[in-house]
Amino acid sequence: MLSLNQKLTIWRYWQKLRRANYWLWAQAVFLILWLLRRLPARSAIEFTAKAGRLIGPYTPRHRIAIANLRSAYPEKPTTEIEKIAGDMWDGMARLFAEYIFLDAVFDYDPNATEPGLIEVQGAEIFERLRNEKKPHVFFTAHTGNFELLPICAATFGLNVTALFRPPNNPFIAQHVLQARHTNMGHLVPSKAGAAWSLAHVLGEGGNVGMLVDQKFRRGVPSTFFGRPVKTNPLLAKLARQYDCDVYPARCIRLAGGRYRLELHERMELPRDEKGQVDINATAQLLNDTVEAWVRQYPGQWMWFHKRWG
């Protein structure tokens, strides 16, 4: 039987090996990003999309995606399930490449006479909220290029502090955080203390954005595509505490490498018998909203995520 010192030694070596593995993977990712930057933006995005559609089905995550799709759409034939999964890999690969070309992709100009790559639905809502002296919460999901939404808000003079989950790889996480700060303003990594940071922003009359379709083990019971899941109650708790309006937003990929960014009108949150925001019912409402988005464009959502796991 191993002694405590021996166990500690093994653990330290394991941590060093794990960190070395993270470093090697990070260097590979950085090399790919460097090579993509040598290409024109549209060529790099299209090349990456084709590679993603080709390589994605051979990854372990593809099995998760197929299992999730079959559970969500038991009526669909295998050919359609595989097509949705292929579209998903295409979109996720595009997202990877678009990450380094956000300045080239986001060409929206409210005063432009000719359409660009970006069109905005709900521009009048952005303009109205800009002049409101009160906090707002925006939510979205992993559909289309969701990274474009805070950039769009900034175009209308709305500074949004976004909650995001950093990659597990610490080297890639640091790189992503630095790049996102450059392109998207304030960010709050989803770790201990994140809720307090967002609460502070709302308390100062600021705006907060968050993704609401991620797995959260300590969440409230709810359903998504008819299957039980746990949903993060943070949005509902913040809305109840600060009595702030909540707005759904999403990105939709269009033909020809174009995008539509949508900001919808204020969501009416369910209330309990005391008139306060109902946490569980609001969590379910968020899931229902995201599910409707996914059903409309199933190939644009991140099916390989272990949402139900």
UniProtKB/TrEMBL annotation:
Biological process, per Gene Ontology: glycolipid biosynthetic process
Cellular component, GO, one term: plasma membrane
Magnesium is among the record's keywords: no
Lineage top rank: taxon: Bacteria
InterPro entries assigned to the protein according to its UniProt record, in alphabetical order: LipA_acyltrans
GO MF annotation: an example: acyltransferase activity
Principal place of residence: membrane
Keyword Acyltransferase tagged: yes
Descriptive protein name: Lipid A biosynthesis lauroyl acyltransferase
Organism of provenance: Phyllobacterium phragmitis
